[in-house]
Amino acid sequence: MININKTYRIIISGGGTGGHIYPALAIANSLNEYYENIRLLFVGAYGKMEMQKVPEAGYPIKGIWISGIHRKLSWKNIVFPLKLIFSLIQANRILSQYKPDLAIGVGGFASGPLLWMASKKRIPTLIQEQNSYAGITNKILARNADCICVAYEGMENYFPKHKIVITGNPVRKDIQYISESIQKGYDFFNFSNKKKTILIMGGSLGARTINQSVLHNIHKVIDNDLQLIWPIGKIYYDDYQQKIKDINYKNLRTFEFLKEIDLAYAIADVVISRAGALSISELSVAGKAVVFVPSPNVAEDHQTKNAQALVNKNAALMVKDSEAKDKMMDIALDLLDNPDQLKNLEKNIQKLAIPDATDRIVKQIESLLN
């Protein structure tokens, strides 16, 4: 336990997508739940979704001017060195003013400059790596980090082995108790508990292929009288609202972003999802039958590796992104017609869950604060 007579200041940095933001909020919520003497500050990147989502969750946040390097040739890469230098200056100013006892990086653009400067100032640092493949920023930061919390085995390929602690990925507590929210879920979406429900998950920004595949196969959903929850994503929402405006189907619910994802998990019979690390962790805790459509646009094709690991354990099904338009919805419909297979997938994916991941990370934070 930490000293209850002292006030500890902690900075949590990172974001860019829900896959980084929601683990950070889960950690913050647990710290606030356990301790009254901890003060939290988030640091994010200007223009990214954490600048909206973190204040909505009740936490203060400061922004820095940073973005990633574009993999394809782009004029935007020309200003990256300037952004990097400026963000390091901003990070140094924030650290000097806030004087944290610990800095936590959850991935995303802002975590790089903040944790780099924190380590230079001899402030203890902790990295929370969600993926099975570590990005270049975390690999650099790991050299000076004090603790690296990971969700997958084999991460010594990227990080110093003696710093690694397998904790799993933190998920929101409401997802751990979805069995208590089933009726609330049906009420929220105004759905019937007599009909089957499919949940689409393309990530917080959306997934082009999954959205295209849903639209291409929407007649199959209608013909089978299914209920469909479809968060389209910020990037594609306005375009798809135009494309579906003539589809008058009472059991279709579309969203730009679905904040109440726990209620969707509670009533979903089958989930169609990208294979990001946070999605896998949430689906495992929720115990949902899932058809993964891994994104091909990620480093080292790590989403396919993530999904294949579950397929090998008979804990999920997978469709290639290039085949999604023709196969994705049909596989989901076949699964709904095969209750034995569906139950088997639910049982096997739940075996992979680490529901106390947040508590494990909090223990590492306690250790560093002590």
What is the topology?
Layout: E1 8-13, H1 18-34, E2 38-45, H2 50-56, E3 61-64, H3 80-98, E4 102-105, H4 111-120, E5 125-129, H5 136-141, E6 147-150, E7 164-166, H6 173-176, H7 182-189, E8 197-201, H8 208-216, H9 218-223, E9 227-231, H10 237-243, E10 252-255, H11 261-267, E11 270-273, H12 277-286, E12 290-292, H13 302-311, E13 317-318, H14 324-336, H15 339-350, H16 357-369
Parallel strand pairs: 1-2, 1-4, 2-3, 4-5, 5-6, 6-7, 8-9, 8-11, 9-10, 11-12, 12-13
Overview of the molecule:
The chain is 43% helix and 15% strand. The protein is an alpha/beta fold and 370 residues long. The chain folds into two domains: 8-170 and 356-369, Rossmann fold (3-Layer(aba) Sandwich), CATH 3.40.50; 174-350, Rossmann fold. The strands form two sheets. Strands 3-2-1-4-5-6-7 form a seven-stranded parallel beta sheet, sandwiched between helices. A six-stranded parallel beta sheet has the order 10-9-8-11-12-13, with helices on both faces. It starts with 7 loop residues before the first strand and ends with a helix.
Defining key terms:
globular; 370 residues; 2 domains; 13 strands; alpha/beta; 43% helix; Rossmann fold
Count of all domains: 2
Largest sheet: 7 strands, parallel
CATH topology of the largest domain: Rossmann fold
End-to-end span in angstroms?
Answer: 8 Å
Radius of gyration computed on alpha carbons: 21 Å
Series of H and E elements: EHEHEHEHEHEEHHEHHEHEHEHEHEHHH
Mean of residue pLDDT? Answer: 92
Indicate the structural class. Answer: alpha/beta
Helical amount:
40-55%
Instruction: Give the overall silhouette.
Output: globular
CATH architecture of the largest domain: 3-Layer(aba) Sandwich
Strand order of the largest sheet: 3-2-1-4-5-6-7
